[in-house]
Amino acid sequence: MAKSYSVTSAGVNPADDRAHRMRMYFIAMSLRVVCVASLFWVRGWWVLLAAAGAVILPWFAVMVGNAVAHNGGEAPEAPAPAELEGSPAPRDEAEDPARSLIVMEVDPERRAAPREHPPAEGSS
């Protein structure tokens, strides 16, 4: 019996993911605005709570806003790679002359010297 394989494991729709991240960012930044505004009328240790919210919420909002859902689906089951029968064993590079590197020595002065082009025909 032949085994079937999944061609793709589609994850989260990018538009839905972006909309969710924008919603979460908006909620966190709205809470920050409430925290900043509440600094004007709260007293006591509540000021510390509101100040902490005003300072920490932007970091949280950016982290949530940038957290892209990479893949919500399951990973595809891949078959084992096929092997050719009767293929030769891999050879060492030193044994194979076609794989060797050829280095040509060039005089450095010749490389650095500008080329002189012959004058074009018809020019005086």
From TrEMBL:
A Pfam family: DUF3099
Organism domain of life: Bacteria
Residues covered by region (Disordered): 71-124
Bias (Low complexity) ranges: 72-89
Biased amino acid composition, Basic and acidic residues: 107-124
Keywords for this protein: Membrane, Transmembrane, Transmembrane helix
Membrane-spanning ranges: 24-42, 48-69
Name recorded for this polypeptide: DUF3099 domain-containing protein
The organism of origin for this protein: Leucobacter massiliensis
